[in-house]
Amino acid sequence: TAASGLGGPGGAAGLLGSGGAGGAGGAGHLGGQGGAGGAAGLIGGGGAGGPGGLSAGGTGGAGGYGGLGGSLLGSGGPAGPGAEATPGHSGGNGGIGGSALLIGNGGNGGNGGYSTTLNLLGRPGTIGTGGWLIGDNGIPGLPMSPNLLVNGSFEFASPSTTGFSSVTVPGWTVTGTPTIVPYGTPLTYPSPTSTPFPTVPNFLGLGFPGNPAPGAGSNFAGGGPVATSSISQTVNLAAATANINTGTVPYTLSGLLGGYLLDPSSTTVQVTFLNGNGVALGTGSIGPVSTIDRLGMTGFQARDISGTIPVGTTQAVVTATFTDRNPILGNYNGSFADNLSFTVGDPTLAAPMLTVPTSNVGQLDHVYLIYMENKGAYDILGSVNAPYLNSLINSYGYANNYYALGHPSDPNYFRVMGGSDFGLIYNPASPSINAPSLMEAMDNAGVSWVGYAQGMPYPGAIVSQGDYAVDALPFAQFTYVYNNTPTYLQTHLQPLTQLSVDLQSTATTPRFSWIAADGAYNMEGPVDFPGGAANWLASQLTNHQYNVAAGDQFLQQTVSTIQNSASWNTNAANARSAIFITFDEDYNNLSLGIGNQGNLINMVVIPNDAAVTFGGMQSGHFVTNTRYDHYGLMSTLEYALSPTAGTPLTTLTYNDKYALPLNDFWT
């Protein structure tokens, strides 16, 4: 339907059968009216009226009329709802419910569209009449609330400009690794080398959705680079309890759902109504939109459902589930959603505001980040080749639901220092990023930092040599560091052997230390050819244990060096320290197309006594099942290294600003 156009009418039924639903009105300056539901023939229900079109700059579209019921037997179709208006304009009027003729109920009147100006609320639609012989009249519509979902159109985001990177979804609680992608993003697969794969021309129809659906903005949400994922929000309906308990308050759940070409992955959205004790009272859902529904084409289709909110409801949980059914290419999840909306029949409810997640991360004087390579969580848990790391997991705080955010390796380093993968889904040569970074923020705040790399031939090395690879640390990828002075580089990039020297006192220990193993000890590999390469390949296809024992040895030596140092063992208010041990990604480089661990990786956090006594960190062994990721780690660093308690050192993108910090490691 063209912008502002009238939705197409539903098809009329023949002798038997129901009329088709009317199409949605077009989006434009003024929303278009929804199409009328098709009339039934002799026996059958009238089609539902189409919803009014969203308004891009004025009055919302009116709902379509419900179709007439069958002349002998059949109920009238429900009317379509009016659309929400832009601020200061009138909401769309609800459509008129279809009438039954002889036997059957009248269709419900359409709900009125919301307006920010209460006297401009859309008028509820007229009800359809029941059949002359038997049948009840329809239920009147009500003026509706604004959309009660935060960021339902996914415009507040730092989207993945490749589609192959999971990003923070502001306002939503997530599972797995969902993403937000700009419309028109071309298709390029991740490359495990320093050379990117070619971009597939969009004119072949192989890119991500190119043209926003009517009423959509610049971005849409998707299942993300691997595995099934979901996003959810809890909507507080307590202010409408009195009305809800009359049993007459309607709701509408709607959205644009879609997918990619022949990928059978799909999206469903469900609302679950809960009482004050968290007991489910009822549900409603839309989707999925199947490959057949889309005729095998990339794109979206509108879906909506309306009903009555169960008596006793105090809150509603809306969950969009992106179900991965892709059998190839490492299981990219090509299911999409946009313009998700949940409205109820109470226009006094206020639209929620987007807020930054609460942080209880305390300040730390010394943070040690040890980044290992290419092992999924279950490659390590219980592994006979990693007894030391397992002993740490069983002795300190462990995040059991921690995710890397994409493939290959290097972009997972950039994310922690820059808040983005910067559209890089390969391992680029240095430098590759000209953007603000945590290094610059730390320098501006007087926070000392050093990257320690095993095998670095001399301080300040920004050229790979021998066992040292420049990308073992993320810093030289940023022009701010790479193009700095030799003195600056020598201060901030050090051989790992310097760590034990710096740990001799709290005064010489950097506030932030990133510690990297070389290729022989980082758990990735292969480290030699052809034997090592053959063993690595066999490990990729079996139990993923290549190089695990060497990495475990590295961790034992490095963590012991820190824990035996004078700096670590100073129990004072200015010596609060913690070690964070994690991995860049799981074993599956997406472009290899083998296996799928969902990018679930290990994260163990080790505080010293001072961090527990003076910094409020949790002590001893515990496991948290809260979902965290690399952007949450970045947010944690921003709070822990800030000179002002409770205020982050900086925020660089929506990804770190709205990521959930690792709160469970503090009391």
Automatic annotation (TrEMBL):
Signal peptide: none
Protein name: Phosphoesterase
Coiled coil: none
GO biological process: one example: phospholipid catabolic process
Organism, as annotated: Mycobacterium gordonae
Lineage: Bacteria, Bacillati, Actinomycetota, Actinomycetes, Mycobacteriales
Keywords assigned: Hydrolase, Virulence
GO terms assigned for molecular function: hydrolase activity, acting on ester bonds
InterPro entries: Alkaline_phosphatase_core_sf (IPR017850), Phosphoesterase (IPR007312)
